[in-house]
């Protein structure tokens, strides 16, 4: 029996529909302009130098000639050129007569400068902890087996100089016995810096006491058993236990403080962070002058040579030149816009924070990005980008631009005070406290209420104090 299934016909058709929509497209030029806004000054210099290398339409303006324009005759010009040539010749003669090599060898060196040497080979590298210890091991009477063990030990040191492996871990990396490994570790601990390759702060300090011939049993016991008590400043119980006065205990503590708990830190590869201000703010009379730091920033212009020849190009060459010309023109516009925005934002900050520029951090007012954005008719994101990684030199020091934006605390009279001002006052109160009786967080809160008429909780004082890396009152307390 056959069952018939009826299927309806399904029609397929193509239709054209018109739909209107809005979409934000960030062109490469717009992305470049936004990127330039948030670059620091040093990053901007690097970016501009890279564009100068890649874009033939960009050129660097020469420094303005301070001398007046020459209006003399052609003979006078030739005479000046000849005099300039003679001055150069005299200087070359001076170098040739007083240098340690002949003029012929100098010419040869100028043609082939430092043949066979890489750029890195001409620089002196900073000594590392591994290299410094390895050099000492090679100059000592270490056997070949001990040198092999020592290399493994040095390979397991952290930046502080502490050994991050036990004897069993080291034996898995080198063929030796536990006694030899322990002996090598102890010998390395007595190299320079003393205490390196220790496995704990207690061992590090004990090695230094032994090396510097400190044999007082109380001093050794303090390091061996009571480092935590010293850290928490439990001085009176310690004085009672050892039956000594607080003056005597203070002398022991002074000896311990002269020791180095992190002997490898001085060889750390961490480099200091140098800050180059983007803006300078000077006081001139009763007003403040804003000067952008353009020192070292190339003065860009369009290259006239390629601009004149672009009309003679055809095809892909012309397309390439037009693209590079547009890119160069956009870079010039973006750089101008960046500097203009930075100036306007700094000008607005000076208006809002004038009391700070007059009297210092204690007078810093509450400020948010929206306030500055509305003041200069820009978007908050633009203000945020232009204040990122930017620094200003003020009469009271160098500050990051974001430092001027801080939250508010309500005062008793209805006005507000900036959180950075409260932090500055907390730091000032602590710096003037009695070291024997440091101020507690609750006492500081009461003093702030009397000084600023602001109700600030003890936990808020503790939060601000911790943000400034200031220890608690118990850890700030001194014996005498």
Walk me through this protein's architecture.
- This protein is α+β, with helices and mostly antiparallel strands and 480 residues long.
- The chain folds into 3 domains: 34-60 and 269-406, no CATH class; 129-267, no CATH class; 407-480, Orthogonal Bundle (Arc Repressor Mutant, subunit A).
- Helix content is 51%, strand content 7%.
- It is built from 22 helices and 8 strands.
- It has helices at residues 28-38, 41-54, 74-98, 103-111, 129-139, 144-154, 167-171, 178-189, 201-211, 217-225, 227-231, 235-242, 246-257, 304-309, 315-352, 354-359, 369-376, 380-386, 419-431, 441-452, 458-467, 473-476, and strands at residues 58-60, 279-284, 287-292, 300-302, 391-394, 397-400, 408-410, 416-418.
- The strands form 3 sheets. The chain has a 4-stranded mixed beta sheet with strand order 3-2-5-6, covered by helices on one side. Strands 1-4 form a two-stranded antiparallel sheet.
- Helix 6 (144-154) packs across helix 8 and helix 20 (441-452) packs across helix 21.
- The longest helix has 38 residues, at 315-352.
- It starts with 27 loop residues before the first helix and ends with a helix.
């Amino acid at each position: 029996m056959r069952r018939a299934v009826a299927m309806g016909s399904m029609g397929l058709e193509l239709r054209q529909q018109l739909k209107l929509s809005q979409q934000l497209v960030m062109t490469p030029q717009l992305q470049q302009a936004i990127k330039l806004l948030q670059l620091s000054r040093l990053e901007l210099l690097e970016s501009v130098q890279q564009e100068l290398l890649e874009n033939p339409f960009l050129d660097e303006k020469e420094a303005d000639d301070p001398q007046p324009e020459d209006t003399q005759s052609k003979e006078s010009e030739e005479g000046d050129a000849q005099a300039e040539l003679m001055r150069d010749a005299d200087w070359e003669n001076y170098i040739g007569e007083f240098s340690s090599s002949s003029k012929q060898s100098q010419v040869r060196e100028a043609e082939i400068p430092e043949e066979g040497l890489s750029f890195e080979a001409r620089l002196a590298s900073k000594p590392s902890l591994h290299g410094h210890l390895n050099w000492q091991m090679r100059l000592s009477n270490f056997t070949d087996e001990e040198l092999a063990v020592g290399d493994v030990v040095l390979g397991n040191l952290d930046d502080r100089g502490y050994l991050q492996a036990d004897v069993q871990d080291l034996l898995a990396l080198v063929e030796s016995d536990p006694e030899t490994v322990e002996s090598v570790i102890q010998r390395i601990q007595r190299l320079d810096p003393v205490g390196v390759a220790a496995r704990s702060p207690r061992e590090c300090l004990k090695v230094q006491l032994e090396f510097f011939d400190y044999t007082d049993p109380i001093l050794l016991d303090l390091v061996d058993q009571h480092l935590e008590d010293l850290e928490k400043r439990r001085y009176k119980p310690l004085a009672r236990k050892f039956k000594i006065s607080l003056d005597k205990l203070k002398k022991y503590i002074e000896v311990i403080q002269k020791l180095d708990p992190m002997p490898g830190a001085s060889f750390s590869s961490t480099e200091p962070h140098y800050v180059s201000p983007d803006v300078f703010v000077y006081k001139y009379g009763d007003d403040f002058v804003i000067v952008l730091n353009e020192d070292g920033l190339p003065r860009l212009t369009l290259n006239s040579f390629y601009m004149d020849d672009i009309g003679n190009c055809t095809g892909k060459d012309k397309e390439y030149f037009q693209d590079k010309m547009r890119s160069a023109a956009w870079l010039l516009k973006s750089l101008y816009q960046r500097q203009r925005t930075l100036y306007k934002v700094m000008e607005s900050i000076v208006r809002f924070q004038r009391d700070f520029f007059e009297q210092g951090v204690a007078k810093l007012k509450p400020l948010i990005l929206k306030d500055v954005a509305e003041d200069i008719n820009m978007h908050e994101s633009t203000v945020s980008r232009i204040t990122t990684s930017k620094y200003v030199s003020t009469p009271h020091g160098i500050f990051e631009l974001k430092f001027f934006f801080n939250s508010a605390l309500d005062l008793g009279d209805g006005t507000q005070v900036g959180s950075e001002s409260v932090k500055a006052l907390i730091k000032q109160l602590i710096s003037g406290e009695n070291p024997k009786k440091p101020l507690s967080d609750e006492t500081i809160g009461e003093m702030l209420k009397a000084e600023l008429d602001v109700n600030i909780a003890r936990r808020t004082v503790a939060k601000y104090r911790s943000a400034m890396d200031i220890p608690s009152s118990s850890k700030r307390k001194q014996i005498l």
